[in-house]
């Protein structure tokens, strides 16, 4: 009996010893898991509390950025911008209007400078008489518009070469010596025509109206109250209306020192028209084209058309 009891006690002790090691690890694992869960919960709560503290820093930095809008708009350059406009408006009051035209008796030098500005053949200005130029222009134009030629008041010096008929062209008709017209003699007027052609028509018209007070003064000295521009246009129209006959009908006679046209109709023409005949066909065509342009620009200026 003692042996059987002893054997049972030994088996029970052995079962306890064998069951103890199997149960201990489960308790340890459960305990460690509980600790990990607890630590995790504590970390979550503590992390949520610390993060707002870190985020406050960028929020406080954003406010000073508003300085971008601060002083920049105030120095807008509106007040200084008004000063240039005032200066620009004041310039014309002091500038060119002060440069008035001279008196009529002192106008030759001023007029010569003007003519140098409106022609590209400046060397041909030597053909002009530079004394009392405006009065000469007015008197000659007034006479020409009426059919006369006031040679003593001509704005130009006279050609050096004289007219001469064709050589060996003398014939006898009705006991009268007759010469043929010499077209080559018209070349003595070529330089005058070149001068007229070299002048810019628009600049010439502008100069005319700039000098108009002096021109009107010279015109009034002749006893007129009319507008000189009308007289100038009448003189231009006389040139435009002039038609040259065939040179075969322009034969000449010489009853005295001066030659005359053998055709009575030509000889009875006004002096202004006979001067145009002596210019020759080619020269007259150039003069007509230049004066036609001047005539149109004068009319436009008078009517206020630019």
Task: Describe the protein in words.
With 306 residues, this protein is mainly alpha-helical. The protein folds into two domains: 1-99; 101-302, no CATH class. Helix content is 58%, strand content 4%. It has eleven helices and four strands, in the order ααααββααααββααα. It has helices at residues 2-62, 79-94, 108-117, 133-145, 190-198, 201-210, 212-221, 228-240, 264-267, 271-279, 281-302, and strands at residues 171-173, 176-179, 252-253, 260-261. It has a four-stranded antiparallel beta sheet. Helix 4 (133-145) packs across helix 7 (212-221), helix 4 packs across helix 8 (228-240) and helix 8 runs antiparallel to helix 11 (281-302). The N and C termini lie far apart (154 Å). Mean pLDDT is 77; it is low at 1-7, 14-27, 39-73 and 77-98.
Write out key terms for the chains shown.
2 domains, 4-stranded antiparallel sheet, mainly alpha, 306 residues, disordered N terminus, 4% strand, 58% helix
* Count, helices: 11
Q: Give the distance, in angstroms, between the N- and C-terminal Cα atoms.
A: 154 Å
Share of β-strand residues: under 5%
Main sheet: strand order: 1-2-3-4
**Extended strand count:** 4
Q: Name the shape in a single word.
A: elongated
Give the overall pLDDT as a whole number: 77
Structural class category: mainly alpha
Catalogue the unreliable spans.
1-7, 14-27, 39-73, 77-98
Count of domains: 2
């Amino acid at each position: 009996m003692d042996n059987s009891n002893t054997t049972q006690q030994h088996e029970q002790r052995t079962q306890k010893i064998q069951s103890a090691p199997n149960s201990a690890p489960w308790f340890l694992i459960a305990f460690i898991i509980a600790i990990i869960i607890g630590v995790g919960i504590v970390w979550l709560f503590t992390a949520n509390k610390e993060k707002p503290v870190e985020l406050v820093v960028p929020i406080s930095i954003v406010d000073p950025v508003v300085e971008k809008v601060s002083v920049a708009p105030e120095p807008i350059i509106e007040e200084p911008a008004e000063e240039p406009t005032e200066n620009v408006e004041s310039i014309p009051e002091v500038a060119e209007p002060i440069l008035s035209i001279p008196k009529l008796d002192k106008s030759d030098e001023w007029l010569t400078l003007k003519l140098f500005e409106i022609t590209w053949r400046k060397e041909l200005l030597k053909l002009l008489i530079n004394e009392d130029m405006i009065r000469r222009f007015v008197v000659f134009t007034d006479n020409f518009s009426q059919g006369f030629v006031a040679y003593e008041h001509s704005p130009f010096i006279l050609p050096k070469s004289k007219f001469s008929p064709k050589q060996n062209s003398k014939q006898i008709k009705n006991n009268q010596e007759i010469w043929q017209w010499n077209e080559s003699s018209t070349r003595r007027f070529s330089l005058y025509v070149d001068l007229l052609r070299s002048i810019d028509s628009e600049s010439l018209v502008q100069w005319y109206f700039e000098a108009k007070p002096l021109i009107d003064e010279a015109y009034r000295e002749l006893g007129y109250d009319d507008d000189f521009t009308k007289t100038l246009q009448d003189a231009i129209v006389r040139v435009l209306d002039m038609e040259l006959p065939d040179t075969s009908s322009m034969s000449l006679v010489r009853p005295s020192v001066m030659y005359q046209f053998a055709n009575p109709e030509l000889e009875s023409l006004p002096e202004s028209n006979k001067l145009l005949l002596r210019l020759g066909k080619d020269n007259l065509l150039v003069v007509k084209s230049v004066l036609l342009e001047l005539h149109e620009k004068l009319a436009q200026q008078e009517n206020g058309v630019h």
